Amino acid sequence: MMAKPDDRSDNVEKLQDMVQDTIQNLEESEEYLDEHGEEIAPQEREAIRQNNENRRQSIEGFREEIKDEARE
Q1: What residue numbers bound the domain in which 47 lies?
Q2: 31-43, pLDDT tens digit by residue?
Q3: Of these four, 5, 11, 31, 63, which has the most CB atoms within 10 Å of its CB?
């Protein structure tokens, strides 16, 4: 059985979708913090902040991959 060829033709589109999804998650969690930050435990607030920082880094990584794909 032969391996499937590496079809990367829609990589940019998939990466852009991942950027949009990640931005949406980031915005929703920041909105949640704004509305409920006083009601939740400090550890949960910190975990949400850390997740958001990770999301920002992921977005940057996805954008770099999009640039790389566009060059190929």
Answers
A1: 14-71
A2: 999 999 999 999 9
A3: 11
